[in-house]
Amino acid sequence: MNGKADYKDIILELAEKVNVRTNLSQLRQLLKDDKIKEDLTKTHDLGENVVGFLEEEDPKTRKNAVLLLGDLGYQEAASAIMEAYQKEDTRFVKASYVTALAQLDAEEYLPQLKQRLEAVMAEEVEEQNRKHLDEERRALQNLIIRYDGITTHIFRGWDKEVNVILQTNPAHREVVRKMVTKGEAKLHGLGVEVKTKSLKELMDLRPYRELLFKLDLTNKEFVSNDPVQAAKDLWNSNLYTLLESLHEQKGPFYFRVECKSKMTLEERSTFTRKLAGELERLSGGELVNSTSDYEIEIRLVQTKTGEFYPALKLYTIADKRFEYRKNSIATSIHPSTAALIMEIARPYLLEDAQIIDPFCGVGTMLIERDRAVPAREQYGTDTFGEAIEKARENASLAGEKINFIHRDFFDFKHEYKFDEIVTNMPVRGKKTKEEMDRLYELFFTKAASILSEKGIIIMYTNEVGFVKKQLRLQKKYHLLKETLMQKKGEFYLLIIGLA
Q: What's the predicted TM-score (pTM) here?
């Protein structure tokens, strides 16, 4: 058989019970064609015939049959599928019944499905049945969540003493540490570790990327790189008690595992799947793995020894620092990086300054500049019209009055001069070395014409060579501060004064 027209021959063979398992599998493949699927579901009374194959002796035939019924959306088969599921005694087939029910209306079977989930959670795990137990458990949980949703937890730990990590630029952890005024702060491999009862104060700091909750392990610092042992390490930590103490409601807590490692995607997926399944079993259902609906992220960062440093990311806490950044483009700077730049540059920033960003993108640098030290008037220019529109919306959401102009900076004219140029310089991309050299030459020439007598340039760039060439050629400039921001890519913050 070949070609899409062969499905009619397959249906005839199925009616005669010829090559049943193979034909069921082939039909499932053909159903990927929307036109064939519509024809099969509307023209042929195929479902009723396939239901009979749920009684076949061959387990693979039963599996193909139930999955086909689900693919067809054959609602009339729901009760037969549920009945067959309850009688099924072959482990690798069980999850297929749940997968099929998930494509139908199965709400009336929720009580039985919940009972089955409890049984699966209680079943003794052996290496030979782990994979299929996990498959069935995940399928049941996803189906139940579809109808019941997840338990929403309200964070109530604002005044509790907590150990958190402010994940930030590793080269500038000290900048963030000095900003912490309440609590004990010290440098940490991931950023800055803070022991505090003033969590809200930390939530207002801008130059860090994420706030993670530190986990206390029993007599160890890292969790194992074996997924089963890693789950035991996590369950034996203060993971669950911490979640309970920080939230108004108890479990179940829905989580996902985020693994930062050098493993391949397949290796990482296998590791996190096994870990999550074991953690669910150890918790007795108080921790539920859900990759789409979750409030908790277990963050695992692999160390040089291969073990993992664990932490928690709580989505029950709303991080409102950068809510204005509704829009971005591919070249946009992360707002926490922009905030860090402004914190480092703070000694050079003037209140009530007049500022321009020649390559403003979606406006992040200007918004974070005003957050650090209030400006009087700000302008942003860019040749990318879509970015300008996005910048205007971002600024409006931030409550900022910024004049965004869709124009080439080199053609821009203004009645009075600016105190500061603040900018994230364009990256090279497909530009040649000569084109970038010319860009920086034009930039510094133009900057001199629009800056006030003691104006400054606050520049984020990974083209330091071109900058220093212009500083040598254009003697009117002098370098005030040079800070390596990111070793990878060699991004620098340069603060340049106009003599």
A: 0.80
